[in-house]
Design goal:
By secondary structure, the protein is an alpha/beta fold. The protein has one domain: P-loop containing nucleotide triphosphate hydrolases (Rossmann fold, 3-Layer(aba) Sandwich), CATH 3.40.50.
Length: about 200
Amino acid sequence: MSQIATIAATIFKRAGKAQRFVVAIAGPPGSGKSTLAEGLAEVLPDSAVIAMDGFHFDDAVLARRGLGARKGAPETFDFGGFAVLLKRLRAGEPDIAIPVFDRTIELSRAGAGIVAAEARFILVEGNYLLLDEPPWSGLAESFDFTVFLDVPRAELEERLLARWSEHGRSEEEARAWVASNDMPNVDRVLARRRAPDLAI
C-alpha cells in the first residue's frame, strides 16, 4: 500500500460515520502539503482541498503595512477570514465559495472554488495550521485530524530554491529571497508547532 493510501485509510477510519471530517495538513514551505492534499483527494471519496494560501494579503496591502519583504509569514495572511471559513466548513454550509491563490500572478482569486454540501472530507493545507502562537493556536478546535510533514531543513531549502527558479527568478534572486524570507518561515514552523495526530 502506498503512503498516500495508508494515510487515506487512517483518515477514513478516524472519520467513522461523521458527515464532515476536517483534516489539517501542515508543514513548512516546500514540504509537499499541496501534493499530499491533492493525492489524498484522489482516493478519499467526496473530498475537497482548501489551501490557506488563498488568504494571502494582496501585495499592495503588504506594501502599505511594510510587510512586502515578509510575504508568507503568519502576519501576512487574513487569519480572521480563514478562521471564519473553517467555521462555515465545519457547519456544513452548502456551496461555500473559497479563494484560490494563483502563484503565476502571485494573487488570490476570490470565489475561485466551491466546496459542495456533499463534501465529506475537507483537506485543509497550510504552513501555520499547527503553529503554537496566537491567534493560530486557536485553530486547534477546527480540525478533526492533523498531519505534519516533517522534512529536513536542508532539503526544504533546495526545494524552495528550485521553486523560485521555476517561477523565473535568477539564481541570485532566488537565493536572496529564500534566505531572507522563506527560511525564517521554515524555522518558525519547525520550532513552534503543536503535536500532530500524524507526522510523516
